[in-house]
Amino acid sequence: MSENKEPHVAKFVYDFTEGNKDLKDLLGGKGANLAEMTNLGLPVPPGFTITTEACKVYLESGEEPAALRDEVSAHLDALETRMGKKLGQADNPLLVSVRSGAKFSMPGMMDTVLNIGLSDKSVQGLAKQAGDDRFAWDSYRRLIQMFGKTVLGVDGELFEEALDAAKDAKKVTVDTDLEAADLKKLVTKFKKIVKAEAGRDFPQDPREQMDLAIKAVFDSWNGDRAKLYRRQERIPGDLGTAVNICSMVFGNLGPDSGTGVAFTRDPASGHQGVYGDYLQNAQGEDVVAGIRNTVPLAELESIDKKSYDQLMQIMETLENHYKDLCDIEFTIERGQLWMLQTRVGKRTAGAAFRIATQLVDQGLIDETEALQRVTGAQLAQLMFPRFDEHAKVDQVARGIAASPGAAVGKAVFDSYTAVKWSRSGEKVILVRRETNPDDLDGMIAAEGILTSRGGKTSHAAVVARGMGKTCVCGAEELEVDTKRRRMTVPGGHVVEEGDLISIDGSSGKVYLGEVPVVPSPVVEYFEGRMHAGAHDADELVEAVHRIMAFADRKRRLRVRANADNAEDALRARRFGAQGIGLCRTEHMFLGDRRELVERLILADTQDEREESLKALLPLQKQDFVELFSAMDGLPVTVRLLDPPLHEFLPDITELSVRVALAESRQEPHENELRLLQAVHRLHEQNPMLGLRGVRLGLVIPGLFTMQVRAIAEAAAERKNAKGDPRAEIMIPLVGTVQELEIVREEADRVIAEVQAATGTELKLAIGTMIELPRAALTAGQIAEAAEFFSFGTNDLTQTVWGFSRDDVEASFFTAYLEKGIFGVSPFETIDKDGVGSLVKAAAEAGRRTRPDLKLGVCGEHGGDPESVHFFHEAGLDYVSCSPFRIPVARLEAGRAATQSAGSDHR
Questions:
Q1: How many other C-beta atoms lie within 10 A of the C-beta of residue 901?
Q2: Which stretches make up the PEP-utilising enzyme C-terminal domain (predicted)?
Q3: Vertex 274 angle, CA 271 and 277, to 5°
């Protein structure tokens, strides 16, 4: 066990009266916001918070900080004095909850224990204090159940089965119909389960209960589901969790008590109104677990108008104070409203854009802040297709629209199957009565989630919204049988595991079979087929339009497209591309032209080679004419041929079979034989590090010359037709300036010849890709011969890490992610420490040599939100990405330009 290293902090425990919302790093989100509500004078049950620093010490050393027990004791004494009762005392017990609370919301991923302080003795005192035996024994059985599962590691199903058996014996369907005597027997049964499974008695000492619960919360930070959720949400693993000790208030004291969750706006749509769920005679876990179906929050007005009016006033106060959508947990104890939690609420992508613009219009935030309230990932979600409203469908149920999207897949009824089938390439819908944190891996793997219980604040709904996953909850008409792996829909039809279903998270509708999808209205807007104010979805489109306009005004980075033909170029331009950052000419050599490339590769003489190149020249030229026309007035960066030549030849196995068959049949096979010989001649152990890129241009005479001539002649033709071509020639895979100088000298000669022949002045910039570590390290020398650099981050990542992408992603990346070696794949988000350091160093060195050196990136990272922020900070001029990612890159470039320190709206 390592030495107990305690950080230099003044203390490890803060009373709710001491903190504020800006101390999330220290107090966690829940603790900081409980303190903030206390400061605002809102009705918060008294309590205190153990800091994340204490958790870090515990996780690093395996022991709690030496000072922690005394600090907890001092705060507990103060709490007991304030409440006028002692923790777990026999006659008038103080009970507390022990709740996790990390900096970032991780709903259901870590542990909570309610009713700490109850024992065989104090349960009698609680019954007397409340005047309600049933309530006391219900609270006690809840404590044993939660404590047994969370702290002692007992299988939670054992408690559920005992509870179900008690209801069956009583012939009731809900636990509220169990009487005090039934619950007392259940407590005895639960204690026997604990003894049998945990090998110890349920602790009767209330302080032991609290201390063990605190440790369990600390430990839950590194639980499997918490780590999986952090990887999914890219939350750092070294933050630790705070622990909140809060005096208990009870929503299960009868019909004048209850618990609920409220949102100041609809987290699914962003619309203002009364949104949330309420459950009478219940504790908070009953709501989020979806075990009992709630009533809409609006019904609280008729149940308890006084509490309802007070809640509405508090919600308005909190939204104005936080200047954002707030997610609120509350309890009513015999007519007294208590606030248990508030946080900036998770929301769907559409709601994020709507709410951001609404708050601007209300004067609560400015446009700069609105831009920080949305993300490129959310915009990408809005561009996904939706169900065709005109399609013939078989609707079988309708639940609560918890998280929007159109999801189609095979029904599966447990998390394990969802993951297994998904890894096999199947699209699945996870169907459950209700989800719990153990279902997280299946929820991640599924296209969508469907539950028959729960509301907009259930575990399934909250987690799905956070992940941007389609979700329909509370579809009560569905009878879900997880043991038999089937569900029965109204009318008696049975959906077996593997049957196709479709769910619409925007309407809550559930369909049999596959429903066709149509483009998103946001995509139609970007393509110019819809204008703000001209469609049923105009409110969302208008919100996107406004935020994109502001991002475009603020961003410094320009955004180009990776496009290889006129069709893709025109789409990219509609999406807002400011040029083409990567035209891959090898794509122009496929299809009908492959035969010409084969002839070039098979050429035995200079004449044969020149004949093949002469045949390819007009085809290449026409490609560029079309491309320059589509992007007239905008730069087009053309990369000369990059991949190994063997990629243009038939597969060696297929070709060997063809030759063998022809020989056995004594059929002519001279051409196939020459191809096979060429394939063998060009075979390399590692072709991606072999004869490719600039090396092809140096080894195969005339290849790059032909391409440069095609580019120059196309540019001249467009210019003579009154166009404005802005072609740039990019040499790939350069590792030394000498390679670039040789190719550049030949290119300059060809361009001069075309200028003389056409009488047209051409300004064709010549640059290179920086995709090898040596190129990055000698960028100052290479800049002497290059007018621009474009970082090819795909190959740069491969060569820096020593990875062959196609091989490693399928073999060990999953293990690396699970072990925490990667937080995210370096091919998805740029490796800032390694690859990123080379990008920055090359950019700085290149500009020292050539101050006006233009810098861009054309790898897939150019469309990744987090990477765009890095490229902005590194001082690049543009990013280039696939056409569909252009709006995302534009938005993130604007966000990067306006990012303010400390602004965080996860």
A1: 4
A2: 542-894
A3: 115
Burial of 66 (0-12, 13-18, 19+ CB in 10 A): exposed
Average pLDDT on 438-459 reads: 85
**Residues whose CB falls within 8 Å of the CB of residue 117, separated by 6 or more in sequence, listed in order:** 87, 88, 93, 94, 95, 96, 206, 209, 210, 248
Strand order in the sheet with 47-50: 13-15, 47-50, 241-247, 96-102, 112-116
Residues 240/221, Cβ–Cβ less than 8 Å: yes
Question: Distance of CA 372 to CAs 272, 323, 401, 524, 834, Å?
Answer: 21, 13, 26, 24, 28
Contact 268, 468 (CB under 8 A): no
Q: Tens digits of per-residue pLDDT, 594-633?
A: 777 777 777 777 888 888 889 889 999 999 999 999 999 9
**pTM of the predicted model as reported, rounded to 2 decimal places:** 0.79
Residue numbers belonging to the annotated binding site: 584, 639, 771, 792-795
What 3-state DSSP class applies to 469?
A: coil
User: Furthest-apart CA pair in the chain: how many Å?
Assistant: 105
Contact at 8 Å (CB) between 186 and 163?
Answer: yes
The one catalytic residue among 459, 545, 646, 872 = 459
**pLDDT higher for 388 or 319?**
319
Query: Is 683 in the active site?
Result: no
Q: Which pair of structure tokens corresponds to residue 815? A: 């293990």
Confidence of residue 289 (pLDDT cuts 50, 70, 90): low
Give the C-alpha separation, 894 to 896, whole Å.
Answer: 5
Residue 83 corresponds to which amino acid? M
3-state secondary structure (DSSP) of residue 656 = helix
**E strand spans, 464-542:** 470-473, 479-481, 486-488, 494-496, 500-504, 509-512, 517-518
- The Cα–Cα gap between 894 and 173 comes to 54
Inter-CA distances, 96 with 86, 118, 169, 191, 462, Å:
11, 9, 32, 20, 25
758 and 716 Cβ atoms separated by less than 8 Å: yes
Q: Show binding-site residues for Mg(2+).
A: 771, 795
- The CA distance from 76 to 96, in Å, is 10
691 by Cβ neighbours in 10 Å (0-12 / 13-18 / 19+) ranks as middle
Q: How far apart are CA 186 and CA 203, in angstroms?
A: 17
Enumerate domains of the chain plus CATH numbers: 13-247 (3.30.1490.20), 258-347 (3.30.470.20), 386-518 (3.50.30.10), 555-590+604-644+698-898 (3.20.20.60)
Spatial contact of 769 and 733, defined as CB atoms under 8 Å apart: yes
Give yes or no: 459 in active site. yes
Mean pLDDT of the chain: 89
Rounded to whole angstroms, how far apart are CA atoms 702 and 708?
A: 10
Tell me the residue type at 223: G
Interhelix angle 594-602/670-682, rounded to 10 degrees, is 70
- The one-character DSSP state at 648 is G
In the set 55, 583, 858, 881, the catalytic residue is: 858
Q: Is the dihedral of CA 647, 650, 654, 659 positive or negative?
A: negative
